[in-house]
Amino acid sequence: MSDDIGNEPQDRLAPFLAMATRVGSTVGSIVANGAAQVMATQRREVRKIAGVLALAFTAAVFACAAAGFAAFSLLVTLGEEHRAAASALIAVCFALLSGVAILLARDRRADR
Fold first, then answer.
1. Most buried among 34, 69, 93, 102, using CB within 10 Å?
2. Cα(1)–Cα(8) distance, integer angstroms
3. Pick from 61, 71, 60, 65: which is nearest to 101 by CA?
4. Burial group, residue 93, by CB count within 10 angstroms (0-12, 13-18, 19+)
5. Residues 71 and 52 sit within 8 Å (Cβ to Cβ)
């Protein structure tokens, strides 16, 4: 009789523990799946950002090359007689480009 009384709490506790184990494994599975999805999304975003940065760097290199070629061609076109005027015109063009870049940067900061 004493054995039946001693086993009764254990018999009630076993289903509760089994249910707690199933709930825990289900929650763990949900968390693991969510973490895997977050990591996959993060990898995709990092790839996108790396691609954009590579393209931006390439565009910047070609823009600098184009600006240098334009400056050289302007100096050659105007010749030795107007070298000072050509240099001043090139400096003004670069100043205007930097002003446009500053305005665009300010506009992007204002959007945030």
1. 93
2. 11
3. 60
4. middle
5. no
Give yes or no for residue 4 having a pLDDT over 60.
no
pLDDT at 9: 67
Distance CA 37, CA 33 (A): 6
**DSSP state letters, the chain:** -HHHHHHHHHHHHHHHHHHHHHHHHHHHHHHHHHHHHHHHHHHHHHHHHHHHHHHHHHHHHHHHHHHHHHHHHHHHHHTTTTHHHHHHHHHHHHHHHHHHHHHHHHHHHHH-
| Cα distance between residue 97 and residue 33, in whole Å | 49
Residue at token pair 């184009």: 66
Contacts of 70 (CB under 8 A, 6+ apart): 90, 93
Q: Give the CA diameter of the chain.
A: 120
Tokens of 81: 């007689």
